[in-house]
């Protein structure tokens, strides 16, 4: 989060951030986009936090209809940040040749559902699910494509309870932050909430369509907000309810121990291709791509019979999976089944080069 050290870092005190710190924030924010596009959200985070920290002077300017020196400085900072963000977005779009990336139904099934009602329910649930992963990262996977999370098709779906709790909590934080604008007694709450929400907005699919439903990599910056909120909440309880201090201490130790053990377990999962794929299958056995990838591993490991089993499971879960049809076709000994799978691959993906090539080789 070094790229937020400009406005966010400097405004934390009584002094206004100088020009150098603002430009440093802009440069670091731009560099962060080289790693992940969500780095652009740090600019919005800086502006939002600057508005919060300078609310008193902004309010006075609005009421008096007269700009003060503080609001002039604020305006210059914000204009620099927003202008730089616009330039960086333009450069990014230029690199994409003027259009946003295009994704398939396999990448993000929810985005292709014809019902706006289903899309809205599912996307809201996915946002709540991501925030839940920050609090309880028990279910982790390297890939969440192809129906890993079933669609929320009805308001009676029990998963909507998590959505309601998450968004109700978000509204409470917003309400608390608005009340705190005047006296600013709970700055960590506002900063933590901004870190939790703003960097995650592009991944919600509520602003733009992205090529995933869940991606743990987009939770790095929001995790900082989650930590700030949890620690600040524990601190407030520690100060206000002394009799809970032993429980808070025990909970903190337990949380650190659980996080350490989970990290060690994930390190083992990422130690090899086989270990990663097996952990993914264990976590998301209904993910067609997991079975497809594990089938590829088994094929590469000279285990064609087992590979066919997983390719068939991938096709059962996702019947239009062109690559699974193509790969299982390469393992068919008889002409008929091989031809069938190559033709099915071409049927579902007419531009599938490997399927065309393999079918041509079969007809030779």
TrEMBL record:
This is dolichyl-phosphate-mannose--protein mannosyltransferase. It comes from Culex quinquefasciatus. Its EC number is 2.4.1.109. Belongs to the TMTC family. Its main location: endoplasmic reticulum. Pathway: Protein modification; protein glycosylation. The chain crosses the membrane at residues 22-49, 81-100, 120-140, 161-178, 190-213, 218-235, 247-265. It is a multi-pass membrane protein. It is found in: Endoplasmic reticulum; Membrane. Transfers mannosyl residues to the hydroxyl group of serine or threonine residues. It is an enzyme of class 2 (transferase). TPR repeats lie at residues 288-321. GO terms for cellular component: endoplasmic reticulum; membrane.
């Amino acid at each position: 989060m070094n790229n937020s050290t400009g406005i966010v870092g400097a405004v934390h005190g009584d002094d206004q951030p100088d020009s150098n710190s603002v430009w440093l924030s802009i440069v670091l924010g731009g560099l962060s986009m080289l790693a992940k596009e969500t780095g652009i959200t740090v600019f919005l985070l800086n502006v939002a936090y600057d508005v919060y920290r300078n609310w008193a002077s902004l309010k006075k300017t609005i009421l008096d209809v007269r700009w003060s020196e503080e609001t002039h400085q604020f305006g210059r900072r914000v204009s620099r940040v927003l202008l730089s963000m616009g330039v960086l977005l333009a450069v990014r779009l230029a690199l994409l040749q003027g259009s946003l990336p295009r994704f398939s139904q396999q990448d993000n099934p929810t985005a292709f559902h014809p019902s706006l009602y289903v899309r809205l329910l599912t996307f809201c649930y996915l946002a709540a699910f991501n925030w839940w992963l920050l609090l309880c990262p028990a279910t982790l996977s390297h890939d969440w494509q192809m129906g890993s999370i079933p669609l929320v098709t009805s308001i009676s779906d029990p998963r909507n309870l998590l959505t309601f709790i998450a968004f109700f909590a978000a509204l409470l934080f917003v309400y608390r932050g608005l009340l705190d604008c005047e006296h600013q007694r709970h700055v960590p709450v506002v900063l933590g909430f901004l870190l939790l929400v703003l960097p995650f907005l592009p991944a919600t699919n509520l602003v733009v369509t992205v090529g995933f439903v869940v991606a743990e990599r987009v939770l790095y910056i929001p995790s900082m907000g989650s930590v700030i909120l949890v620690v600040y909440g524990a601190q407030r309880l520690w100060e206000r309810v002394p009799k809970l201090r032993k429980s808070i201490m025990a909970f903190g130790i337990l949380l650190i121990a659980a996080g350490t053990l989970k990290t060690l377990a994930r390190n083992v999962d990422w130690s090899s291709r086989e270990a990663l794929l097996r952990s993914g299958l264990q976590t998301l056995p209904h993910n067609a791509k997991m079975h497809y990838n594990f089938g590829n591993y088994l094929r590469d490991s000279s285990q064609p019979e087992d590979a066919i089993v997983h390719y068939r499971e991938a096709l059962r879960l996702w019947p239009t999976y062109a690559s699974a049809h193509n790969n299982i076709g390469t393992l068919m000994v008889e002409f008929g089944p091989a031809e069938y799978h190559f033709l099915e691959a071409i049927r579902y993906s007419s531009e599938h080069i490997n399927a065309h090539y393999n079918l041509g080789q079969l007809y030779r």
